[in-house]
Design goal:
The protein is an alpha/beta fold. The chain has one domain (38-299). The chain has 14 helices and eleven strands. The protein has a seven-stranded mixed beta sheet with strand order 1-9-8-10-11-6-7, sandwiched between helices. Strands 2-3 form a two-stranded antiparallel ribbon. The chain has a two-stranded antiparallel ribbon with strand order 4-5. The longest helix has 14 residues, at 158-171. It is globular, with a radius of gyration of 19 Å.
Length: 305
């Protein structure tokens, strides 16, 4: 069994029905069950084999809040993909298919992906921006309140998870953390997965933040979205960054696309292969696909994933 800490909540799969809530980003978050799916409706363009949703950070945050309020029958998986993700997808067809699932939304987590996207789609996506997982988590938490959404944290070590809960409680005391769980560092058995899903469902969580590392967390959010009517967010290192257990690169490095070098220097053993193999493979994948060659047929993919 996992080291877990889950607060009690509504029984079964019932979700809250919050009143309309004005977010700090402007606009009113709709009542559950109203409106289209804002994240799936965003324009989509491919970099390598991965279909990215193109949107500014503010639209991504507002979209997650709206998706969480929808009284859905099926979950939604949200991924944050960077150059390494594209490289892995180029090397693994099953992983590429996972990211291209109709029940998945992929945002641009890395600046190099945005650079390639702007070059490949100069007319349809000239303002392609980075939508960084930790920034989205920060924005969603800041816009949360007593009326929702209800958050569940899945991943990280017990120590990191404890620090993360403390950080959220301090920075965003109005955010509702209804449960938190640190799974073991191994594959769960079918019975353990079922029990984990039941724990999440009992809390009435609307957003499940997953920090298990790439690519494990991507498989997990797709699985969760298939089993539970929640928005499952694969946010990777956001747990460590927000908890303060790992340092982020300076802002200028994040904006210049050199954050990978900072992370390689600070964690060479863990991230060595990721960057030394992943960066060249990413460039190969980007060039091999028709978007970078401005293939007219591929440019029509916008809006279609």
């Amino acid at each position: 069994m996992s080291d877990a800490e889950a607060t009690s909540g509504p029984e079964g799969h019932r979700h809250l029905t919050p009143a309309p809530m004005r977010t700090k980003l402007g606009g009113v978050r709709p009542m559950p069950g109203t409106g289209p799916s804002p994240l799936r409706d965003l324009p989509s363009c491919r970099v390598g084999p991965v279909p990215f949703r193109v949107a500014p950070l503010e639209a991504a945050v507002a979209g997650v809040l709206t998706e969480a309020a929808i009284n859905r029958a099926k979950g939604l998986a949200v991924h944050f993909a960077n150059a390494y993700t594209v490289a892995l997808a180029d090397d693994d067809r099953a992983y590429a298919s996972l990211l291209a699932s109709p029940d998945a939304v992929v945002f641009t987590d890395g600046v190099p992906v945005a650079w390639v996207g702007r070059r490949a789609y100069p007319r349809v996506a000239p303002e392609w921006e980075r939508v960084y997982g930790p920034d989205v988590m920060t924005g969603v938490m800041a816009a949360s309140g007593p009326d929702g959404p209800r958050h569940y944290l899945l991943g990280g070590s017990p120590a990191t998870l404890g620090l993360l809960r403390e950080a959220i409680s301090h920075r965003w005391p109005q955010a509702q953390i209804v449960g938190a769980e640190s799974p073991p560092f191994r594959d769960l058995s079918p019975a353990e997965r079922r029990q984990q899903d039941e724990r999440i469902a009992r809390t009435g969580a609307q957003i499940v933040w997953v920090g298990l590392g790439t690519p494990k967390q991507d498989w997990e959010v797709n699985r969760l979205a298939a089993e539970l009517p929640i928005v499952a967010m694969a946010v990777g290192a956001a747990f460590d960054f927000l908890a303060g257990t790992k340092s982020q690169a300076p802002t200028w490095m994040q904006r210049s696309g050199t954050e990978w070098f900072y992370r390689l220097v600070t964690e060479p053993k863990r991230l060595g292969r990721r960057y030394l193999w992943g960066n060249p493979r990413f460039l190969r994948a980007a060039v091999r696909y028709p978007g970078l060659r401005r293939d007219r047929r591929d440019r029509k993919a916008i809006g279609g994933g």
